[in-house]
Write a structure and sequence with these properties.
Helix content is 44%, strand content 19%. It contains 19 helices and 26 strands. The radius of gyration is 28 Å and the shape is globular.
């Protein structure tokens, strides 16, 4: 009995001692057994990474969708995004939201400004307090880290082209046209109106004085009804509420002889298109704005300089009876060939599966992945020829080099096929290009390597570059940017070696560099990077600093284990998604003007 009492007293003492120790110091969490089959919950995100999302209102489906994109990025990146938008468009409330975000300790604000000036003062104060500002959809007149928005003037002109074409196609070459806008201060809708008016320059149509409905569907319907009493032949709504109001006003007449075109995408708009009361709408990509905006905010919080980059997140014309796909103008089922450099590299797999096929499913088209197994000019030419012979209406292609497949692509274009470049263009004009600014990204890789070496006290030494080949423009530009980062330094960049993007060949090259005593190595694509990391791992020497390009499980594992410093992560899913969307738009008759869109890059470290 006494032994039992003593044992209980001992346990009590130990518990008290443990509690006292806890009060003094929080213990480190126990190490996680990587071999365990139990689910281990991830640690909560640091409170530092709180991001405020402030849009014009919280009701419009455009902003709801933008928030969904933001929350998706937040979930993937392990941060908290708080949707802080007012219920209605109101400058005072938006200013209050910005001030609340600063007071609440948010590290970044992702914002769609009501107008260019109204909240500028509040944003300047936020930036002065160290808060990172990212614009989505509509910027203010304050410099920000980055902007993700639609080229609204070009999209407005497209809307005008659609309305003018429909009227002239119906034999109407003159008449009054009304514009239902939101207000006269919001930059995005002002630019849409400007582009729309430009589409009618020199025509016989008379554009009436713009009326403003504050984006409210009911007010906009009243405005549109007033236009109808003036005998208009067409009406343009510049946002979701304006478009719904326009469609409802035309519907109330019971005559679809008045042609309505609009902006934004919602169930109400698509139903009005399905029922024939609207011709079409210009569909933005608010989910892409939100997703990329949050990604940029996280990068900026992490210290990455985004340089105030402005990224056009694109627009599509929606006319389809399903409300999902632009009408191809009676060309029948749409078939698109996707031809990348190979079909093995995870970069291309992601471009296809998470980008191109996602867009294909949303737009109701067929995308056939026709890439060769390995990089080979002859095989890529054959794939292009097969696409022409197979009756494909568009080719989305990442060219092995600027010249090798140019002849085949010229023949395809001559046959009426639309060509869109993703990742790497050839020397043939195309409808559009979606790629990384490879030189800038290569320079960033060089700056990462140089900074790490200098921080370790290494101010000179040899550096190797494992490239793919000397003809693929994307990797050539990465190398050029990388070399530029070392201009004027004490480092010696050795002659570049080529491994054709093959991990095993690249590893052999990196091992040869290591025998030459290099202090750092740069891999210009996925295979080159994996080979570089495996060579450093094989040497057991993480004093050699490796940086790379692209993202894959193998690369991320090498970074996690300390054999690579970082990698430049492109967005191949964005390339594939936007590439297919552009192809569908081009097939449907939309002029894309050869636009080149930078799909961005992030620095991924341990």
């Amino acid at each position: 009995m006494k032994k039992r009492i003593l044992a209980i007293l001992c346990i009590a003492c130990l518990l008290l001692a443990g509690l006292a120790g806890c009060a003094e110091k929080t213990p480190e969490p126990p190490p996680v057994d990587s071999g365990s089959t139990e689910d281990v919950p991830p640690p909560p995100p640091p409170t530092a990474d709180k991001i405020a999302l402030i849009t014009m209102d919280s009701i419009d489906q455009h902003w709801v969708t933008l928030n969904e994109g933001a929350q998706k990025a937040a979930s993937e990146l392990g941060v908290t995004v708080t949707f802080m938008s007012p219920n209605v468009k109101d400058d005072a409330q938006q200013i209050e939201m910005v001030n609340n975000a600063v007071a609440g300790g948010f590290k970044a604000i992702v914002v769609a400004a009501n107008g260019p000036d109204a909240i500028s003062g509040a944003l300047q104060e936020a930036i002065a307090a160290g808060v990172k500002v990212i614009y989505v959809d509509s910027p203010a007149n304050v410099a920000a880290e980055a902007t993700f928005s639609t080229d609204n003037k070009a999209a407005g002109k497209t809307a005008g082209d659609q309305l003018r074409g429909a009227l002239e196609g119906a034999g109407v070459s003159s008449g009054k046209i009304g514009i239902v806008n939101v207000n006269a201060s919001t930059g995005s809708v002002v630019m849409r109106e400007e582009g729309f008016r430009e589409a009618f320059a020199g025509s016989g149509f008379d554009i009436l004085e713009t009326q403003y409905g504050e984006g409210d569907a009911s007010k906009s319907q009243t405005i549109a009804e007033n236009y109808i009493t003036q005998g208009v032949v067409g009406i343009f709504g510049t946002n979701e509420g304006s478009t719904v109001g326009t469609g409802n006003a035309i519907k109330a007449t019971g005559s679809n002889s008045i042609v309505g075109v609009g902006f934004d995408k919602s169930d109400a708009i698509l139903n009005l298109i399905d029922d024939g009361w609207l011709l079409c709408t210009m569909a933005q990509n608010p989910d892409v704005m939100g997703y990329e905006g949050v990604k940029a905010a996280v990068a900026a919080i992490g210290g990455q300089s985004l340089g105030g980059a402005v990224t056009d997140t694109g627009v599509s014309i929606l006319k389809s009876t399903t409300g999902a796909a632009p009408q191809p103008g009676g060309v029948g089922p749409i078939k698109i060939a996707l031809i990348t450099m190979d079909s093995i590299d995870q970069h291309w797999v992601t471009l296809n599966e998470q980008g191109a096929q996602k867009a294909a499913a949303e737009l109701g088209v067929t995308v056939q992945f026709m890439a060769p197994q390995t990089k080979d000019d002859a095989q890529q030419i054959e794939m292009v020829n097969n696409a022409v012979a197979g009756g494909f209406q568009a080719i989305v292609v990442a060219a092995n080099g600027p010249d090798a497949i140019s002849g085949a692509l010229q023949e395809a274009i001559a046959a009426g096929i639309k060509v869109i470049y993703v990742d790497s263009p050839a020397n043939v004009p195309a409808e559009a290009t979606f790629s990384t600014d490879n030189k800038a990204a290569g320079k960033t890789a060089g700056e990462q390597l140089r900074g790490a070496l200098e921080a370790a006290g290494v101010a000179s030494g040899k550096i190797g570059i494992v490239n793919v080949n000397a003809s693929t423009d994307s990797v050539v530009q990465r190398e050029a940017g990388f070399r530029e980062a070392f201009d004027g330094s004490g480092y010696s960049i050795l002659e570049t070696q080529y491994g054709e993007g093959d991990a095993a060949k690249s590893q052999t090259i990196a091992e040869n560099y290591i025998t030459q005593g290099v202090v750092g190595i740069f891999g210009t694509n996925e295979g080159s990077t994996v080979g570089t990391g495996n060579a450093i791992k094989g040497a057991g020497n993480n004093a050699i600093i490796g940086v790379g390009f692209d993202k894959s499980d193998a690369i991320m594992n090498l970074i996690a284990d300390g054999w690579l410093l970082c990698t430049m992560a492109q967005n191949p899913d964005v390339m594939g998604y936007e590439g297919v969307k552009a192809a569908v738009a081009a097939i449907g008759g939309q002029s894309l003007g050869g636009v080149v869109q930078d799909t961005g890059v992030s620095v991924l470290t341990k």
